[in-house]
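Thread: "does anyone have the structure for this chain?"

Original post by V.I.:
We have the sequence but no experimental structure in hand. Need at least a predicted one for the grant figures.
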Amino acid sequence: MTLVMHMINKFTKVYDDLAHKIQNDELRAGSLLPSENELTELYKTSRETIRKALKMLSEDGYIHKVQGKGSIVLDISKFNFPVSGLVSFKELAQKMGHRARTEVVKLERTIPSPEIVENMRLSSGQAVWKLFRVREIDREKIILDKDYLNEEIVPELTKEICQNSIYEYIESELGLSISFAKKEITVEEPNEDDYAYLNLDGFSNIVVVKNYVYLDDARLFQYTESRHRPDKFRFVDFARRK
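Reply from O.Q.:
Generated one for you, tokens below.
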């Protein structure tokens, strides 16, 4: 047991040190990491320990291992978010492993404001789930997702579901099919919620992605404002001229 714990502590220390150097640009994007032999000498440890650390760095999106070439440092300063795709944060975060986490800061069943009623085409007095989630990457709070879900379509939500993946719950547990979304992207000044929940020191703008999400029967069931700190994200799409 002591030997196993010692090995775990050793490879996590190697992982933490290399991750810190990548985060602080001491190991630059596009450069090659030292070889396994060089890392073994540098950290005074076994090759097995180095391989475990490299495997974890690869799983968490810090490096890309190329056969016969070595480990290439990836650009972690920005994260690609597909404009035309309809994916959950959990699906995107899986590429970042332990670097990403979600915190549910608000979940309540409520009668929405007139603006939300209009955006979601609701009847007067119809209830919604109001959900705020903070997305943290590399220990920085950089996305605030403000979700409103039609309570008639999604009758129950828990903090555990929201912490994991609402889309997974809707499709797997409720048996509904999420089909398409209309998106609007704007740049705005931060509001009180942005300052309260995000790390915004030095930033005077927020990139806001508004999503109107529909089921395959064309029912609008979700309206989302995904509020991004602008330095960390690039929104990508693929366009073809016919």
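V.I.: this helps a lot. The first helix runs from residue 2 to 23.
O.Q.: and Residues 79-236 form a domain with the Chorismate lyase fold (CATH 3.40.1410.10).
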